[in-house]
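Service request form, structural biology core

Requester: graduate student, group of Dr. S.
Request type: structure prediction, single chain
Budget code: on file
Notes: please return the result as structure tokens.

Sequence provided:
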Amino acid sequence: MLKRFSLLLLLAPSLSSIALAAESKTDGEDKHYRSLETLARGLYYLETLYVDPGKVQTDDMVFNALKGVVSSLDPHTMVMPRRAFDQLTSDTQGKFGGVGIIVSTERGKMIVVSPIEDTPAFRAGIKSGDEITAIDDQPLDLQKNGDTSEMMRGKPDTKIKLTVKRKGEEKLLQFTLIREIIKVKSVRSNELSNKITYARIASFQENTSEELKAIIEKNAKDMRGMILDLRDNPGGLLEQAVKVADLFIESGVIVSTVGRTSKDVEREFAHKRGTYADIPLVVLINGGSASASEIVAGALQDHERALIMGTTSFGKGSVQTLVSLPDQSGLKITVARYYTPKDRSIQAKGITPDMVVPPQQLEVKNENARKESDLKGHIESGDLSDLAKSSGIRNEIEQWPDLQKQDYQLVSAYAFLRGMRFFGSKAKTPRG
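Core staff response, request fulfilled:
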């Protein structure tokens, strides 16, 4: 079917010849071509009879016809103009223009999967789960499918206004952002304390696995644990997700992809060489962790190689490919579903953490509740725990950068790894 659509695009300038030629087809002609005959005739009549010729230009009609077909499919399959297609292919190289928001279309709504770190959207406070309802005061429900993401692109130093609906907020939020060239660094890391390494993957780009491997090799000799942060990671290159998981898994399936039929199955396997199998590992995920990041988390979870901590991930269990068209526009097509090593599909389900940890510590207040400290003459406390005295976890965290020491999920992951030594854990990270 892809070839047939391409054929139609190639011949679009002579729609009249297509329609006339279709008349000579016999009753036994392939049903697929009869469907194309209907489309060609309809476009031909519009081109030759519609009262306003400027609205029925051949190239525009063919492009919009394809957009109509795509709009009936899944949210991740779309047709893109040349400019948007070029920008999408450059995204995986870590550089593109815009405001730095990864979005998903869900039931006609534009939902923020995650803002990209150190971008205008991130700095302005746009959050995962926000719904963008208007761009430059133009309601998105009036826009054609596939045009909304393009509206956020633009020249650097130009303004864009986003209207956002956020859960828990009564009024719509307004953000005025300045577009800039978005340069995304795939992996960032720092040493926390006690020889525990923190590594955050913002998205899976061309060199992600190499960057992460360099960080591990630099610290592997003395490393007592690693926190791999995949929160708000919207995904990226499947190949890089496989290579990242392969850094920690010695053998077995990493991910399976199933195409149009059950026979179209491909599996990616781990390799023992170059594997860091003994580094205790905690992986952080949340609702903004999607696609390639879910592949990594799912593989490490099924192999019981890491403790997955945080909140349930986004649930994008499909694989897309990019196809260029003769007019230099492009298609992003969902071509397969992917499954974890234990054949779990996470499509619309997500990865459930081994240990659920909310973004911030929840405190239930009861003003009428009485505590020991309220009792007259209560005995003063004196903590004699050897663990509490010797661990020094609180003091260590106080030395971190402010943003990290205020990150409850990160602190929880660190405390878990830090506490493993007191239980004699020297091998792989246990499951929760």
